[in-house]
């Protein structure tokens, strides 16, 4: 049950604003006090009168309107909110949020508020994919702005692709999660992320294409839900999510040592890292010179097996919930079912790395969640932050079932 909260809905000027009355109605139906603020452009797409009638609260549009500002000024609007939902978050509104502009009521409130912000982006697919929008998105995410959608499908502009605003029930669920942050409080979540690098010599190594994005998204979401989070990070260029303790490692052996060191206090372990299965038997301590090393055109490197960290911790996990990942290029579900049995973890997240639109290095992922009984839950293509949220929902469900 979600406690009634004060929710401010900031409406941007996009066609998706026509869905805002449905969103507002659902939020009011949950017992929340809902206020709406609109950009000038938003008033072209949704009637302020409709929103005022549904919420029973005065709708505000202007920053410099003497009578509106006299009723409740923009700082009080920002302060008196437990959650701000930006729907639709247009490309322009996201850009203004990212760069701290405060040139109308909506952007001023977004800059002034200390409440969590949940944005529901909606725009044309090319505007969404534009590097400027993607960079703004990154900035906002780094700052802890929550996101739901956009979804993929037919867009109002006639194009197909990512850009459709999340459906109102999805926004309501994301708002529930944001308001109930703390669902993991008291838990200590240990996440591994990124690829390992196995040195050949001081300048060369064997690594893989893992960007670390999925593991970092999991760490950020777990922290947002109130968990104490330790992130053991392999090779990645990502910034550390807020409120997360990060331990950097290079090789699989270093990752194993860090995981074993942090294991004691952990109640949930998520092994999203792409660990190298083999390492060179010996790493040279000086750079290998090709003239002295390779007499023919062939050079051999002797590799030895790395320990399987996941398998090892599953043998000593006790009450801990352990989650493994499986990157498969074919035969995904049967291979993942065999893997969960072999490794002995409580949940396996399987992704199909043959897809070009998901998995390695991309911002999107589509996964299957597999439990030891062989049951499969599909999570369709969406942003890694949202995939992370669904994985953590599943972990919380496992914990709830155990406690029951
Ligand atoms: O067997 P495979 O490498 O496909 O298993 C992937 C899962 O096992 C991931 O969760 C990964 O972090 C973990 N793993 C590990 N140690 C290894 C290899 C994989 O912990 N040496």
Give a quick summary of the entry.
With 404 residues, this protein is α/β, with parallel strands linked by helices. It contains 15 helices and 19 strands. Strand 16 (321-328), helix 14 and strand 17 form a beta-alpha-beta unit.
Distance between the termini: 18 Å
Uncertain segments of ≥5 residues (pLDDT<50)?
none
The neighbouring-strand order within the major sheet is: 12-11-8-13-16-17-18-19
* Most strands sheet: 8 strands, mixed
> How many DSSP-defined strands?
19
What's the assembly state of these chains? single chain
Mean pLDDT: 92
Number of domains: 2
The shape is elongated
Look at the helices and sheets and give the structural class. alpha/beta
CATH class of the largest domain: Alpha Beta
Radius of gyration: 24 Å
Q: Would you kindly provide a written description of the structure presented here, covering whatever features stand out?
A:
By secondary structure, the protein is an alpha/beta fold. It has two domains: about 5-180, Flavin prenyltransferase-like (Rossmann fold), CATH 3.40.50; about 190-404, 3-Layer(aba) Sandwich (Rossmann fold), CATH 3.40.50. It has 15 helices and 19 strands. The strands form five sheets. Strands 12-11-8-13-16-17-18-19 form an eight-stranded mixed β-sheet, sandwiched between helices. It has a five-stranded parallel β-sheet with strand order 2-1-3-4-5, with helices on both faces. A two-stranded antiparallel sheet has the order 6-7. Helix 14 (about 330-345) links the parallel strand 16 (about 320-330) and strand 17. Helix 5 (about 90-100) packs across helix 8 (about 130-140). The longest helix has 20 residues, at about 385-404. It binds cytidine-5'-monophosphate. Cytidine-5'-monophosphate binds near residues 192, 308, 309, 324 and 325.
